């Protein structure tokens, strides 16, 4: 078994075409492109949640899974599936400098084609020597003379003209080989993108995501005990991507009224609907009384996402209160839709009761080890 080291910077420099044409036959250079069909996915604009996205780009996932098979090709030289692929698609082409290995017995590392003493393969460092080499796919163990467990020079796997035509390169190569030892251990590969030197699809996806600049992006810290639909709704609220009257007007949609669906007095936008509206103010006041904190005041929806940090609650209650803020916005939006589209009757007391009911249902069933009763939940004294 071989383990492998893949410099992350190489993957970044590869475009969609080159990285999607990689197959498990020992090359990154358009290997067997006529026989292998890869469905290319256009790079999307849906980054991971940690950088303000909705969960991750499909392109990153596809590339990460593709790299997984490349990794397995390197680390499973005796597996049946690799032998079948090599029998069908074997090629004399070589990998570009993706892996970097820790040399052992030299039987699994190709002398010219693998980057084992530098970040580049020796075929690129010493092109004249490589051009005159007879066996361009020889391993380290086969291609070098071992003397007293040291690399001592070039063997007969190279043409005799090599010394005459590449004395300078030969001197540099021998100097580079000085001090390198063979051992009885197998050659090892490790993944430098992981502190444990182990490959994982998650590490590749995180790295692919890290090369993009998300410094100016709104990043939502999700609440773990509320459903994804509620978290995604709050993410859209923070980006002003819900269908308020002002948002629809920006999209040139004809709407009956531009006014708030709850108070019907001011233009409806996310800041007014969730922070400034009279109905929303009543709901936030009732929420603060229920949670036994000071009255809440927000100037914009951005303030909603940091409320739990400044209400004076302990660590556990802060996590609960953060989820309650999300649920309150969720219930305000549902009440707005009910009044606007169903002509329903909406009151602050009704909305806060919905907040308590949904909060109890989700917290009790989505929090590990929670057995809270409805009475204790309504008192907010159970933590």
TrEMBL record:
Keywords: Nucleotidyltransferase, RNA-directed DNA polymerase, Transferase. It comes from the Eukaryota. GO terms for molecular function: RNA-directed DNA polymerase activity. It holds the Pfam family zf-RVT. Residues 199-284 form the Reverse transcriptase zinc-binding domain. The keyword Metal-binding does not apply. This is Reverse transcriptase zinc-binding domain-containing protein. It comes from Artemisia annua.
